[in-house]
Design brief:
With about 425 residues, the protein is mainly beta. The protein folds into 3 domains: about 80 residues, Immunoglobulin-like (Sandwich), CATH 2.60.40; about 100 residues, Immunoglobulin-like, CATH 2.60.40.3710; about 150 residues, Beta Barrel (L,D-transpeptidase catalytic domain-like), CATH 2.40.440. It has 5 helices and 27 strands. The strands form 7 sheets. It has a 5-stranded mixed sheet with strand order 21-20-19-27-22, with no helix packed on it. It has a 4-stranded antiparallel sheet with strand order 1-2-5-4, with no helix packed on it. β19 and β20 form a beta hairpin. It is elongated, with a radius of gyration of 43 Å.
Length: about 425
Amino acid sequence: MNGRPISGPSVGARTRSGKGVLALLLGVLLLVVTACGGGGDSDSGSGAGKGKDKDSSRTDTKVSQAVVTIAPKNGADAVRTSGALKVTAAKGKLTEVTVKDNEGNAVEGEITDGGRSWTPATHLAAATEYKVHAVAKDTAGRQAAEESAFTTLTPKNTFVGTFTPEDGSKVGVGMPFSVRFTRGITHPDDVEKAITVKTEPAVDVQGHWFGNDRLDFRPEEYWAAGTKVTVSLNLDGVEGRPGVYGKQAKTVKFTIGRSQVSTVDVKTKKMTVERDGKVIKTIPVTTGKPGYDTWNGRMVITERLKVTRMNGETVGYGGEYDIKDVPHAMRLTTSGTFIHGNYWGGGAFGNYNASHGCIGLRDVRGGYDGKVAAAWFFNRSMVGDVVVVKNSNDRTVDPDNGLNGWNMSWEKWTA
């Protein structure tokens, strides 16, 4: 051993090394701070940029103040088909409301009250699930949305409408669209609103109630030849009377054929047949004898029968006649007025009135001769053609006796 202190030189080396490391760390730290903070001479440009970047990345996390409410509530069952569905917005305005059934059919409606409410334009169908989606915006433009699903009631008591003319038929210019309901209607406005009539070319068509179970539609004047008519019976879910709902959803289409209007003059005992405004034939006839006078007025052919039985008992003339084979018969009133072939009238045609109120045209028994007047007229007529009777001693036929609403003024029809 030479006696030198063992720790001297080693301690000094560690001290110098520690100072170097510390200096190096301080330099790196200064470089980082300088790079992040920028130089003092360039603060004006980078400082403005830093503030702009901060504003542009800010996210508006405020919740919309608008509140959407849907009635009925989500999951509701046995919901009424009218008056129950309504969407409202508070502290905002509705911008979108969609209501669809489970087949994707949309329910039309309108946003009203300045955007605060929405109601359907029509009733809902019965026993049907509907889904509602509604969106509203507050004054800042922030959106709020709500959804709901509910099911309408299943009615215990229902009604339908039987109608004429049939779907796909071609009819004369006097044919109204007539519906008879299987139950008496006490909410006529709701039922009438559920039936729409569209025409091509367009014409104003209005409905009129006869009693509480029949509703007829017609224009002011006879239909124009060639008019196409489409009727939508949207009765499913309509409450026709308390607790009784319609169960019918059907579209009916029919076409108006050529125009044929025939005028019977009781005094001259002749019938003039006009086709599209031109006289095509004048036919001698016989009408109701005194005491059995034929109705005056405009009557629509509602039924065509090549042969039928006519029994006086069915119209209050019991025992006066019972003819089992009346040929070429066409009904004009519910009460039993026909225009028909007559093979038993002898020389009455064009000379004197001999019937019990019907209009008779010369015919042969069995109706086999296509050249006689009755066959000629029958073969050139269709349901919906008009037969006008004038100069009779009887009154005008009632508008609801058959499809004869043309005997009512337009003012009364639309009242």
